[in-house]
TrEMBL record:
It comes from Paraconexibacter antarcticus. The lineage of its organism: Bacteria, Bacillati, Actinomycetota, Thermoleophilia, Solirubrobacterales. Keywords: Glycosidase, Hydrolase. This is Phosphodiester glycosidase family protein. Residues 63-253 form the Phosphodiester glycosidase domain. One of its GO terms (molecular function) is hydrolase activity, acting on glycosyl bonds. The keyword Hydrolase applies. InterPro entries: NAGPA.
Length: 257
């Protein structure tokens, strides 16, 4: 199982590559990877004021590059998991205890961007923080061990289903020594198998990730580059969502090439 890593662009935007890695059982799925050099990158967490699809929100806000953020709770799309913007806590629905203390986060602070378990980050961090999970890659190796370390099976009642089970469309954020990767995969189609969390983690390791985390997925999977929706979101039964599903939070990637 192998994916081709894009070479980070030095022009007006990120390099974007779409590949179709061969999975161990012979299935394939489309993997979309946008690579942003860490030099010149600004990562920001955004809370959408009203539920909106990522691509429509990007067009309205004139945002060029973004990926779906964390989970949310219907019907009002309240963010699920810790959320902080500019050092201030944003109203959200906490993860069921004790999982909020351990689930993975992306943190953008004065020291740069980190992807880590919540307990490995400052208790009151500066900058922006978004919690989702699980952690996919730690220290350059897959963090998917087959155990329920972050409680996504034990705490599945807060979700539509156990997100650790089976292949689905997925979204992820990964750090390599030189770049940040915004990654999505398609799924829920006869020619688009989707990925398990373990398969996604292995592909990210193959792309050079030193750390990575899972973001919201399924029908919410969305990656926008250059104002265009790169992936092909689908509902559970394969119905294509031309603009994706309304979401609650986004990670905005401002690139200065």
């Amino acid at each position: 199982m192998r994916a081709i890593a894009p070479t980070p662009s030095t022009a007006a935007g990120p390099a974007v590559a779409t590949t179709r890695p061969l999975l161990d059982d012979g299935a394939r799925t489309s993997l979309h990877v946008a690579a942003f050099p860490l030099a010149g990158l600004t990562l920001g967490v955004r809370r959408l004021e009203q539920p909106e699809t990522l691509v429509r929100w990007c067009r309205a806000e004139r945002v060029e590059h973004a990926i779906v953020g964390g989970f949310f709770v219907r019907p009002h799309n309240a963010p699920l998991g810790e959320l902080r913007i500019d050092g201030r806590a944003v109203k959200h629905v906490p993860f069921t205890a004790p999982w909020g203390a351990v689930r993975a986060c992306v943190h953008r602070g004065a020291g740069g961007v980190r992807i880590a378990a919540r307990h490995d980050l400052p208790a009151v961090p500066d900058g922006d923080l978004l919690q989702a999970g699980p952690l996919l890659v730690r220290d350059g190796r897959s963090a998917i061990t087959g155990t329920d370390d972050e409680g996504f099976t034990a705490g599945a009642a807060q979700f539509d289903s156990d997100i650790t089970e089976g292949r689905h469309p997925r979204s992820a954020l990964a750090l390599t020594p030189t770049s940040l990767l915004a990654v999505t995969c398609d799924g829920r189609h006869e020619d688009e198998a989707g990925l398990t969390l373990g398969e996604l983690a292995d592909l990210l390791v193959g792309l050079g990730a030193t750390s990575a985390m899972n973001l919201d997925g399924g029908g919410s999977t969305a990656l926008v580059c250059g104002g265009r929706l790169v992936n092909h979101p689908r509902e559970q039964h394969g119905i294509e969502l031309l603009d994706g599903r309304p979401i609650s939070t986004a990670l905005v990637l401002a690139y200065a090439g």
